[in-house]
């Protein structure tokens, strides 16, 4: 369980992600966005769209957590989602714009939940009971991990 003094930094990480992700993909060509790096199973385009898909799902799960008593959330196959046409073909600007709006709403919500709400939980069929604190920790790290992954791909490919 996190303390009230630990949460603001994690919320700030979620708030900052859209700008960090946009910076990580800045000036990449369409060919670079679609190039598969030997060390990564997904292209940078797929990674950007995956972050949007994942964070959109998490936002909905947080809303369910705050409005229902221990709801069961539905898992999804991220490896199948990343192969769908919108993930493989859509311009990354679509997901970057989605993330800006989504993270503005998500962090506003997180900034204003009560102390008791941080202990509320959802049930994930694959992972069991997950608290709002758990979600905060997971998604602050999730975004940062993918930004670091994109930067690593750029470095390996010499795109810096």
What can you tell me about this protein's structure?
The chain is 64% helix and 5% strand. The protein is mainly alpha-helical and 160 residues long. The protein has a single domain (7-157), classed as Four Helix Bundle (Hemerythrin (Met), subunit A) (Up-down Bundle), CATH 1.20.120.450. A two-stranded antiparallel ribbon has the order 1-2. Helix 1 (7-25) runs antiparallel to helix 6, helix 1 (7-25) runs parallel beside helix 7 (132-157) and helix 3 (44-67) packs antiparallel against helix 7. The protein has helices at 7-25, 30-34, 44-67, 78-81, 85-89, 92-111, 132-157, and strands at residues 121-124, 128-131. The model has no long low-confidence stretch (mean pLDDT 97). The relative contact order is 0.21. It is globular.
| Distance N to C terminus | 39 Å
The CATH class label is Mainly Alpha
Strand coverage percent: 5-15%
What structural class is derived from the secondary structure elements? mainly alpha
Q: How many strand units? A: 2
């Amino acid at each position: 369980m996190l303390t009230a003094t630990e949460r603001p930094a994690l919320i700030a990480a979620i708030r900052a992600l859209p700008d960090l992700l946009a910076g990580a993909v800045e000036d990449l060509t369409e060919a670079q966005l679609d190039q598969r790096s030997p060390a990564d199973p997904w292209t940078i385009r797929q990674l950007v769209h995956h972050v949007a898909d994942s964070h959109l799902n998490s936002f909905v799960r947080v809303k369910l957590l705050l409005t229902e008593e221990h709801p069961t959330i539905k898992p999804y196959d991220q490896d199948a989602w990343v192969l769908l046409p919108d993930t493989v073909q859509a311009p990354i600007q679509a997901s970057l714009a989605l993330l800006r709006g989504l993270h503005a709403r998500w962090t506003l919500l997180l900034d204003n939940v009560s102390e008791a709400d941080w202990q509320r939980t959802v049930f994930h069929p694959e992972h069991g009971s997950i608290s709002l604190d758990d979600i905060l920790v997971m998604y602050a790290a999730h975004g940062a991990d993918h930004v670091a992954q994109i930067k690593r791909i750029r470095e390996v490919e010499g795109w810096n």
